[in-house]
Model the fold of this input.
Amino acid sequence: MKKEKNFYKTSKIQRTTFKKLFFYIFVSLFFYSHSFADVLKPSVSIEPKEVVKIQLSALMKNDSPYKDRGILQTWEFAHPNNQRFTGPIEKFTNMLKTQAYSMLINHQEHEISEIFKSQNLATYEVIILGKNKNYFKFKWQVEKNNFEGDRKDCWLTTAVSQPINLGSSI
Done:
């Protein structure tokens, strides 16, 4: 009789433990998949200027809703050649956090002006107001991707120039 009670107790504890474990796994998977679901993927329907807007808007709120989401979004729209040169993502993240490009992260505002656009190439002048109240100018280039795969014919960033400091807004 005593053995049966122990079996019942053990069985009940195992079920409770299993339920807790299942709950934690479910919650973890939900948040993991949900956290990256908000990152837009390149699409043939996204115009070149919109690519630049997507990247700048994400960098403007880099850590929302999670740390470095803006950098991840920017990486998604980087051309494969650009990714090979600046990647992997950890290297790209570190590059954006250096003094050369850090003003892009959590900047206050941006303005995008078209300089040139052809069938496969577009160049924009981007002026941002950094969080330190200085304006910076960049040349932002996007190209239509001609590599096979899910990004074929999508506009992707191929180059961003070094910033030119335009001075203080104060």
